[in-house]
Amino acid sequence: MAGAAARGPLPLPFLPFLPFLLFLLLPAATAEPELRFRRPAEAPVRLFTEPELARYDGHQEGQPIYLAVKGVVFDVTSGKEFYGKGAPYNALVGKDSTRGVAKMSLDPADLTHDTTGLTEEELKSLDDIFNNVYKAKYPIVGYTSRRILNEDGSPNLDFKPEDQPHFSIKDEF
């Protein structure tokens, strides 16, 4: 019978705290709804033509600095000491410098999107730098139009938005 007594009503000393316990445990019907704020969405990515991307070459004070690798445009402004005006890697910014990154070259002839003729070692280096430096360190702000469109303006059928990091087609239009 001792076990039955333990299941009985609350002892009298706890009775004054019953309203407080109920207040804590039960949602108030008359309380105003709790406002919940979602984190603001990241700025939508956008498409950059070559002339648009060229505006972000680090030469204009107060303007972001953008660099494209493999058709992905990164905001490298936080690395201004490397990519800003007069900095050692400034030649890479304001354009798609995929070939230069793969070859670790600042030769103007290599500062292009074209990967034709790169060795396996250079392609591996490109992937390593793309994933472990640019994607890991800098925010993606868009894609080059060349990545999504062919030279004649027709859609690039090999482009798959679902395979792109931070890309949502609905943010584009």
Protein model, in words:
With 173 residues, the chain is α+β, with helices and mostly antiparallel strands. The chain has helices spanning 2-6, 18-25, 50-54, 80-83, 98-103, 120-137, 145-148; strands spanning 46-48, 66-69, 72-75, 140-144. The chain has a 4-stranded mixed β-sheet. The radius of gyration is 28 Å and the shape is globular. The N and C termini lie far apart (73 Å). Mean pLDDT is 79; it is low at 37-41 and 166-173.
N→C terminal distance: 73 Å
What percent of the residues sit in helical stretches (DSSP H or I)?
25-40%
Q: Please report the total strand number as a whole number.
A: 4
Could you give the order of strands across the largest sheet?
Answer: 1-4-3-2
Structural class: alpha+beta
Order of helices and strands: HHEHEEHHHEH
Query: Low-confidence runs (pLDDT<50, min 5 residues)?
Result: 37-41, 166-173
Strand content: 5-15%
In short:
The chain contains 7 helices and 4 strands. It is α+β, with helices and mostly antiparallel strands and 173 residues long.
How are the secondary structure elements laid out?
Blueprint: H1 2-6, H2 18-25, E1 46-48, H3 50-54, E2 66-69, E3 72-75, H4 80-83, H5 98-103, H6 120-137, E4 140-144, H7 145-148
Parallel strand pairs: 1-4
Antiparallel strand pairs: 2-3, 3-4
